Amino acid sequence: MRFVVYCFSGTGNTRWACDRLAAELRLLGQTADVYAISSDCTPPPPNGYDGILLGYPVHAFNAPVPVLKFLKTLPPAQKLLPVWLVRTSGEPLKLNEASGITPKRILGGKGYPVRGEFHYVMPYNIIFRHPDGMAVRMKRDAERAFPQDARAIAAGEGSLCKNGPFRRMVSFTLRVEHTAMPLIGRRFKATEKCVGCGLCAKICPQGNIMMVDGKPKFGKNCAACMGCSFHCPKDAVRISLLNGWRVNGEYSFEGEPAADADVIRYCRKSYLRYFREMEGK
Ligand SMILES: Cc1cc2nc3c(=O)[nH]c(=O)nc-3n(C[C@H](O)[C@H](O)[C@H](O)COP(=O)(O)O)c2cc1C
Ligand code: SF4
Ligand code: SF4
Predict the structure, then answer these.
(1) Å from CA of 48 to ligand 1 middle
(2) Which of 47, 163, 222, 224 is surrounded by the fewest CB atoms within 10 Å?
(3) pLDDT tens by residue, 93-136
(4) Is the entire prediction scored with pTM above 0.70?
């Protein structure tokens, strides 16, 4: 079978998960082509494929705006093309499953049935920096799940998350982020620490950063992916109202995974439940 993988990723977590699932599918003898959802490339339509994987990070219990916009550009399905959602998030809250509501609605309306949803908890790119041991355990647990998840996809299987009225209400309310973010993003700034390397402009998936006189200038299409502030080698990007939540610098993923006793206090029970579920797979 031939799978097309459409992936939006601000700081690399979702891209990593999609690449790993694609690699596992190839090991099973399937074809899997991965395309980024970004302003500087238009992924091909899914005609000619037998299934679709849609990768995105959870943003305020929703799918990011560029993902929803991309889904709206998909042509109506010409044959039965099942879809698997591939999500990453920083918290292990079940509420994150609400981020599948709108993608499922748009895809269903175009004749693409969502067959399964996969969710991997990965280190935060905003709010706070996860301790290294937590990051290592998240990555290790996702790694363990990929072969089994790829087998389910190759077999055309999967399960869907159920979202009741509470989740729908929270997800709908927090969609305010979609209108707020372009406004907040216009006020992003680079400090004097900026060395004008241009990396932020190069990686912005929205093409929202222009280098002007050797410094980044932020436009009005920010999708809050945090790529610029996370990857800046000088930690020079200030993210306006969200600055207190800024996370800068790659996670190392080296070292020992956090033991249960070292799991952070914030959402501790949910992290422990998630780790146990993943490790029992
Ligand atoms: C604007 C924004 C909103 C986010 N909202 C949530 C959220 O509602 N729940 C959650 O668990 N993680 C949230 N996160 C964390 C990301 O989903 C998580 O770090 C993800 O793995 C990032 O994936 P990426 O590297 O592919 O961009 C948010 C991140 C950003 C930047
Ligand atoms: S990545 Fe950082 S240092 Fe490089 S241009 Fe952007 S803000 Fe400046
Ligand atoms: S300006 Fe920064 S946060 Fe906004 S879309 Fe571009 S890289 Fe992402």
Answers:
(1) 32
(2) 47
(3) 999 999 999 999 999 999 999 999 999 999 999 999 999 999 99
(4) yes
